[in-house]
TrEMBL record:
Pfam families: Bac_rhamnosid_N (PF08531). InterPro entries: Alpha_rhamnosid, Bac_rhamnosid_N. Residues 46-182 form the Bacterial alpha-L-rhamnosidase N-terminal domain. It comes from Hoylesella buccalis ATCC 35310. This is Bacterial alpha-L-rhamnosidase N-terminal domain-containing protein.
Length: 298
């Protein structure tokens, strides 16, 4: 994909370093977070994130992109990619919480997970920068990759909002600085390659088969399945065509992959001994497509 190529290599340092969780493994998705104090708001601020995987970036609990995730990657591509975003509108006076959800592109160990830089221009023309270092905190997310290209989602694993100020600090540990300069694109871009939800499909019919249900869509699509469940038991496991979901036991809950996609047409949904067909309230097929996300420029 040509729009991805311009972001890779032939690049230069933006004076920040790669960081990673203390113990990198091949399947864990990782949460990163840091807080910065702003005495006054900059008139313009941009964030640059470099990653070898896929990320969602939040500032003060707001996703800075309308994309499902970024960057768009094809196959087992894990080359470092750098993305620049305008983030002025997400900042506030005082404490600002920056939170990043990272996933490996595929199950493998990569010591370079992400690097982040926030640069601001103040009213007096002064420029200030906040860069990733070992002062960031990290912990494993409640979602991880599986060896067959799916995901394992434990909805009970972390009860607090991971990207908010209301966290249990004792469950987080310092990030590890890999002491390698991160890269930044040497191109001036007005956007970045990402993926988004395109079409939502409803299955045409379903078939009951033993301890499960087959749902049939009109055509094959690449994307994710979003399932609404009712009256599932806490800890109950649901298997959704490559997604293993552990239920919270709330009256209604939704199960969906985070960073992976698959080809879906005839899909099987089943579960453990507590699974009942009537727990499935709705099934939606969400088509995921690549696109070029336009960034605001000032």
């Amino acid at each position: 994909m040509t729009m991805l190529c311009v972001l890779i290599a032939h690049s230069q340092s933006f004076h920040t370093h790669w960081i990673a969780t203390q113990q990198v493994d091949s399947t864990s998705e990782i949460w990163f977070r840091q807080q910065i104090w702003l005495q006054e708001l900059p008139v313009f601020a941009s964030a640059t994130i470099a990653t070898t995987g896929k990320v969602d970036v939040y500032i003060n609990e707001r996703n800075v992109s309308t994309a499902s995730w970024m960057p768009c990657r094809m196959g087992n591509d894990n080359l470092p990619v750098s993305i620049n975003m305008e983030v002025t509108r997400f900042l506030q006076p005082g404490i600002n919480t920056i939170a990043i959800w990272y996933s490996p592109t595929f199950p493998h160990i990569n010591q370079q997970q992400m690097a982040f830089s926030l640069c601001g221009r103040m009213k007096n023309g002064e420029k200030r920068a906040f860069c990733s270092d070992d002062g960031w905190l990290t912990r494993r997310a409640n979602v991880s990759l599986t060896r067959d290209g799916g995901e394992r989602y434990d909805a009970n694993a972390y009860p607090l909002k991971w990207n908010s100020d209301d966290v249990d600090w004792g469950l987080w540990q310092p990030a590890r600085n890999t002491n390698m300069p991160a890269i930044a694109s040497s191109y001036h871009l007005t956007g970045y390659p990402a993926v988004k939800r395109n079409m939502t499909y409803t299955p045409r019919y379903f078939d009951l088969v033993g301890n499960g249900v087959y749902y049939q869509f009109d055509k094959t699509f690449k994307g994710q399945l979003r399932i609404t469940l009712r009256d599932a038991k806490r800890g109950q496991k649901i298997y959704i065509d490559g997604l293993e979901y552990t239920c919270t036991g709330e009256m209604d809950e939704q199960a969906c992959r985070k960073f992976t996609v698959a080809d879906h047409r005839r899909v099987l949904i089943n579960g453990d001994q507590n699974f009942k067909n009537e727990q499935i309230q709705s099934v939606e097929g969400i088509e995921i497509v690549p696109y070029f996300h336009e960034s605001l420029q000032y």
